[in-house]
Amino acid sequence: MAPSCSPVNSLHVAVIGAGAAGLVAARELRRESHSVVVFDRGTEVGGLWVYTPQSEPDPLSLDPARTVVHSSVYDSLRTNLPRECMGYSDFPFVPRPEHDESRDPRRYPNHREVLAYLRDFARVQTRGDGSVRDRSGSCRARRSEVEDPIKKLRWGVQR
């Protein structure tokens, strides 16, 4: 997508979630000259593509004190879409010539390959600028109590 020609005031923007949608949303906001920070509850980028062998001890979610597992990926998962349909238009999801056994060159790759693609995308887009952070899950986004007559609605990120 080409940068917008309309003048835009630069804003400080928080993107919640470092999965496929959050990463591309942050990229598009940067293209519009906004200052962006991506927050995620997990320990790494990738969102639902991050695999964990853990499972919830209470599959019916009856116990409010249960350990909540935020992943729907299982170990043998492969995509049901070809990689050509899953990539961003300006960052194709093509097999990478890496000497890493986790890379999967198949047209319908495994979840580790999708996660590696999202990590590659994040690394290229952020260039290590620290804009993907607070992976501890300790942040909360709340509507601000301060009324802003110009922007009307404000949100704050609290630790």
UniProtKB/TrEMBL annotation:
Keywords: FAD, Flavoprotein, Monooxygenase, Oxidoreductase
Top-level class of the enzyme under EC nomenclature: oxidoreductase
Superkingdom as given in the UniProt entry: Eukaryota
EC identifiers of the protein: 1.-.-.-
GO molecular function: flavin adenine dinucleotide binding; N,N-dimethylaniline monooxygenase activity; NADP binding
Required co-factors: FAD
Descriptive protein name: Flavin-containing monooxygenase
Lineage: Eukaryota, Viridiplantae, Streptophyta, Embryophyta, Tracheophyta
